[in-house]
Design a protein that fits this description.
2 copies of one chain form a homodimer.
Chain A lengths: L1 H26 L3 E7 L5 H11 L6 E7 L4 H7 L5 E5 L8 H8 L9 E5 L16 E7 L6 H4 L1 H6 L2 E5 L13 H11 L4 E4 L8 H11 L4
Parallel strand pairs in A: 1-4, 1-5, 2-3, 2-4, 5-6, 6-7
Helix pairs in contact in A: 1-4
């Protein structure tokens, strides 16, 4: 089928750039993470808090992917971390070529870690490797505990999951069975690291920081 | 550019089926709505409650779009409404061809309204007309009030927006400026109907029902 061939070609072109990015990060001995989630699950808040709390231990640079606007890049720049904005102008995911251009604008030598915040979309970004060492999926409890089953692609491919906004569980305003989400995610991905956090209150963030810091030993 | 041509061709093929669906609904004098949102904003809950609350006034049939699983179709079928499941097997949006096949499986003559619940994705579904009379966008307050600015495509194209989960605003657990979201959405789309609702508690749903019922006069 023609459509499938075209999709394969687009993916192939992406893989070429993704491989170049892998080599770039390996050569510079830097870790790169690709954060993926639905819109509004809290990627930017997690990232801003992580940068601030770890600033004495890890130097983080950020690539912000958005369809339009630089709202998130502005929020990140308030932490003083270097940030490069990519506007996809309607496209539903970042491409490795866009990331390849963006990493040339970051002061990579001064950094320990580059975090790519992908376009808010739980589907498309999972099909496009950007040359990252690992994908990190974020799921807000407000989205419901059935999301690993309903959108399995990204949960199968992510090294770690952050279940965010757990402060909303207090008072019973939100129904979300953490054990169900964990079990379903690990059925897709048995070695997945899972952190239950509130980037707003800080609850649970230390476990995420410990894992992140530990991950550098493997670079 | 070759990629653009390919996208145009795919859209063109979609438009052919979309037009057929438009003619189908016009011929049968039925209204069709295409509900679009991020994963977990509450489309299924809104739909299930609407079907139950309006069952004496409007007969609603549902086309459920999901990447995998029939969890949502099962929830809808508990309301006794007729429902057809489309699994996109990884694809990030429904196509008009899929809807064309699905409407042949619904008892359309017995219905007043067909609601299509699209795949949870705030980006891709907005580019693919399904032959609907109107798109309806759902935004949960947990997703943040900046979404109309950050994902303008779907807000510009939707006839109505439901701001859902307003019960989460009580107690100040969630920061969401309803006026900001409304103003930004109406800047993209000055005639947009906006309903602030909680499909969980029922708050605000009557305004949505009134608009939905009124809409039949134009069919």
């Amino acid at each position: 089928m023609k459509k499938v061939d075209v999709v394969k070609k687009i993916l192939y072109a992406n893989e070429k750039y993704a491989l170049e990015n892998v080599l770039f990060f390996a050569e510079h001995k830097k870790l790169c993470l690709n954060m993926i989630s639905s819109p509004g699950s809290g990627k930017t808040t997690i990232l801003a808090r992580t940068i601030s709390d770890l600033k004495e231990r890890i130097k983080i640079g950020v690539i912000e992917g958005d369809i339009q606007t630089d709202i998130d890049a502005e929020r990140i720049s308030r932490t003083k971390a270097p940030v490069v904005q990519i506007n996809t102008d309607g496209a539903c995911h970042l491409s490795a070529a866009q990331v390849s251009a963006a990493i040339r604008e970051l002061p990579v030598k001064e950094l320990d870690l580059v975090v790519i915040e992908n376009v808010g979309n739980l589907v498309c970004p999972s099909d496009f490797d950007l040359g990252e060492n690992a994908k990190i999926v974020v799921l807000s409890v407000a989205e419901g505990d059935d999301k690993p089953i309903k959108y399995p692609g990204i949960f199968a491919k992510s090294k770690a999951m952050l279940i965010n906004k757990i402060d909303l569980l207090e008072g019973g305003l939100v129904d979300f069975d953490i054990e169900r989400a964990k079990t379903d995610a690990r059925r897709l991905n048995k070695d997945m690291e899972i952190f239950t956090v509130s980037a707003k209150t800080g609850e649970g963030m230390n476990d995420w920081y410990a894992w992140l810091t530990e991950s550098f030993k493997n670079v």
